[in-house]
Each structure stands twice: as C-alpha cells, then as structure tokens.
Specification:
CATH topology of the largest domain: Spore Coat Polysaccharide Biosynthesis Protein SpsA, Chain A
CATH superfamily of the largest domain: Spore Coat Polysaccharide Biosynthesis Protein SpsA, Chain A
Distance between the termini: 42 Å
Largest sheet: 9 strands, mixed
CATH class of the largest domain: Alpha Beta
Number of helices: 13
CATH architecture of the largest domain: Alpha-Beta Complex
Length: 353
C-alpha cells in the first residue's frame, strides 16, 4: 500500500479539528495539522494530539485564510501522496476503505474528487457537487495561495470513480460572523481587482470545478475554448487591454457568469434568484467601492502581482525560514487580515520581510 499524508488547516477550533483528525487518522500514515490563531487553542490541540503518534502539529500566524500557508503545510508532509481536507469536510466510507489501494495503483499525478456541497452527517448528500483536486502527489502540483484555488497539476489529472466523494457537511460549516465577512471582503479587495487577462484565467479556474477534463487543461476542452473565445472576442470588440482593470459592468458580468454556471450545475433557478443575484450585485458594488479607495492604484498593482505569481511566492511563504520568522515576529500580536494587508503593503514598498 502507498503511504499517505493528510493535510489539515485549523483556526481557533480545537474540538472541531480533533473530530476530523479522529475520523481520518485510521486511513492515513501521517496527519499534518497546521494551526493558526490563538495560542490557547493551539495548546488545547497539542494536549489532544499528544497521544496520537501519527499527528504532527505546527503553528503559524493567522492571515485571514489558510491558502497562503498551503506550501508550508505540504513541506511538513512526509509522504508524496497527500489528501488535503478541511475541518468541515469528510471522505465517504468507500474512499476510506480504498484510498490506500487507489494511490498504490495510481497511473496519474492527481485525482479530482466529487465534493457534495450540501451534505449532512446523517448521510444525505444532495445532488449538487463540484470537482476538487484534493488527492495528489505533492511533487506534481503547485499552489499559488489564491482564495479557494485549485492546484495546478504538472502531470496527469484523473477523475476519481464516482463511488468516492468528499462531503461538505452543513453541520460543520463555520457560522457566518461579522469578522469572517469582513475578512473575506478585504481579502477579495486584493484578489478580485482583476485585469482582463486575470478575469479570463479566473473564469477557467471556476469552470474546472464544474467540468474537470482528464489529462488536459480546461482551456483545451470544447466548452473551455468556447467560453474563452467568446470572452476574448468581446474584449477585442470593446477595445479592452489585457492588463487594464475590468470595468464595473464587466465585474457584474464576471460574477453573473460564475453564479449562472453554478445555477445550471445545480439545476436550481431559485438559487440564482434568492442567493445568486444578490451576491452578484453585492460583489460588484464591493469591488466598485474598492476602486474608489485612496490607495486604489497600489491595491490594483499588488493584485496583479498576486494573480501573476501568487500570494505564496509574493510573500515567500514557500520558504520555511520566512514563515518561522513571521511566526516569531507576529505570533504574539494582532493577526488576521489586518496583518496580511500590512505584509502585502510592506512587500510592495520593499520593506518585507
């Protein structure tokens, strides 16, 4: 059987993290938990995992979301094959039973797994799912540290058999809070200040979560070519420049395309009316507001760098020494999105690290 590491990110919720660890530790050879946030919560996790030899626990500063620390976490995984899983997710019993055999017999570098988005602990998983690249050879993938991104696969990607799936469990999802909403809003102010080049790439990334082709880039599929061709034709006719920030109208179209695609996938027009359209309007207004900020030009330049090379490379978070230095320097202070924005601005103004 092949050896498998699981990678889990935790923030200020030791009991929730431990429930996941106990659920997967029996099918993994190592569970790497990267915790950020309060030191008291980290101490609680340390006590809880002390007698579980398969668990390796690490602390990093909180930057508002886990994605920037993915390269650091992968660096702590002992084995090439990695299962990346969130604390509000579970793998189904069929995948638990066969995961060792799957990676031992793999003739590819990564697997896309169906993730049912509205599952429940009682076994009900609904019908709506997206494809998530979560089981992979860590040497053959690359994360950029962007919000909710799929890793780039340097090799062959295959869809995992439909018997196997990830369950995004409603009962385990984080409840909405003003802090969480504010943090995501500020993170998106840097991620979603898009040029036309960046918008085209982002649309392809979202499309890949809905229709994953085996062994090829989504942009090389018929549907990918059609959508990308349509966008480029529109941008050519309207004289848009590739590195120009997209207009407020085009932001609206961008968000509408995303929500429309999810509506078609879920076959639920009520979703677009009740949730999708309000989200489109809110996000368009939010980005339009960011464009009027005093430091708008600086934010857009940072956003271009983030989308070009990624948060991880931009802040050098794939360098363990840099991460440890940041932990030491900021570990006892105020963390979260405010610290992330400070680091981004410091990097832009050549004051980092």
């Amino acid at each position: 059987m092949g050896k498998l590491s699981a990678l889990v990110f935790s923030r200020d919720n030791a009991p929730k993290t431990m429930r996941l660890v106990k659920d997967i530790v029996g099918v993994c050879d190592q569970v790497v938990v990267v915790h950020s946030g309060k030191k008291s919560s980290f101490a609680e996790l340390k006590r809880a995992t002390a007698r579980i030899p398969k668990v390796d626990l690490y602390y990093t500063i909180a930057l508002g979301y886990a994605d920037p620390m993915r390269a650091y976490g992968l660096g702590k995984c002992k084995y090439d094959w990695v299962l990346y899983i969130d604390t509000d997710e579970r793998i189904n019993k069929e995948l638990k039973s066969d995961i060792g055999e799957i990676i031992s017999n793999a003739k590819c570098d990564a697997f896309a797994i169906k993730r049912y988005e509205h599952a429940h602990l009682n076994g009900d998983k609904g019908s709506f799912f997206t494809w998530q690249v979560r089981l992979y050879n860590k040497r053959r993938i690359r994360y950029r540290g962007l919000l909710h991104e799929q890793p780039a696969v340097k090799g062959r990607l295959r869809k995992l058999d439909g018997r196997y799936c990830l369950l995004h469990v409603e009962e385990l999802k984080a409840k909405g809070s003003r802090r969480t909403d504010l943090e995501y809003s500020l993170i998106k102010s840097y991620h979603d200040r898009l040029s036309y080049r960046m918008m085209n790439e982002r649309v392809m990334d979202y499309l890949a979560k809905l229709v994953v082709p085996e062994g090829k880039d989504i942009g090389e599929t018929p549907i990918g070519k059609f959508i990308l061709g349509w966008m480029k034709l529109y941008q050519s006719i309207t004289l848009r420049k590739k590195d120009e920030e997209i207009s407020t109208f085009d932001y609206f179209i961008f968000y509408l395309m995303i929500e429309g695609a999810y509506t078609i996938k879920g076959k639920d027009i009520r979703y677009l009316i009740d949730e999708g359209m309000p989200t489109v309007i809110r996000d368009t207004k939010r980005v339009s507001g960011f464009r009027r900020a005093i430091n708008s030009k600086e934010i857009f330049e940072i956003s271009k760098e983030l989308n070009r090379q990624g948060m991880i490379k931009y802040l050098m978070l794939d360098n363990e020494k840099v991460v440890e230095m940041l932990n030491k320097k900021y570990g006892n202070g105020k963390q979260g999105i405010g610290l992330l924005i400070k680091l981004l601005n410091d990097r832009y103004n050549s004051r980092y690290p």
